[in-house]
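#structure-requests
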Amino acid sequence: MLAPIPLKAGSATAIASPLTGLQTLPSQLLLAEIIRGCPRAEVVEAYETKTYLVYICQTYDGQFFYRGVNKNNGDQINVMDVLSTDGGTYYATNGAYTYWVDRQQLRVTKNGKTIFSEPVLR
């Protein structure tokens, strides 16, 4: 559901797999720690649910975008042109999908129907 953007480099060290020579991360928590924030942009708002890290980011040329990161597998999505309501809800639309977030919940809709909702932890 949520998908892409480059990872922010962290201080953690990757572990080489002896079978494949590929770099693997030691834990899911480490994966989430490495990808926090807004690469090449400033964090305007940050939210966390059980499954996702969500950021409202502002680029250096003043554009706002939504960034969602799945804490379990690292899948990410970036959606440009974030809008906000007077009540403090941010939303960004990507085709049929709209990503809504505020201090209470993260909600994803498809064609106006809620397909995912989770309370914001912080």
